[in-house]
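Sample log: DUF4399 domain-containing protein.
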Amino acid sequence: MLRIIATTALAFSLLSLGSAQAEDRPTLEIVWPVAGSVIELGNDPERAIGVVVRSNFTLLPAGECDGVSQCGHVHMKIDPAGDTCNIAGKPYNSVNSDFGGDLIKARFGHCPDAAGKHAIGVLLADDHHKPILVDGKPVTALVTVTTK
């Protein structure tokens, strides 16, 4: 009986190790809007929509990860190939570093033309706003949508 318990404990330990290693590779995806969506913008000055992301990282406000390695927040840019949709004086359009979670506000009102074809890009960042890297590349996700 003791041998079965020890074998089970060893198997569980190895299984846990394997799971931890698989989870160590950060993931990030945009759940909504889906690529190719046509989205109606509101009449508010920010012309904002919510972007929902999914990650195997815990998404908390910046500075609240307390050394946890699988923790961070998301930086978002509209039309990330340039800076035309960024908030004035910022290198992004939105972050969830103030609140954490899987919802980020995309502020199309900062774009020269809010309506039209746009790419929404998100980047996974650590507690100190530095990009999370995998194989030397930042963990990102991108979708293209049309706004009207």
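Observation: The chain has one domain: 28-147.
Observation: The chain has one helix and eleven strands.
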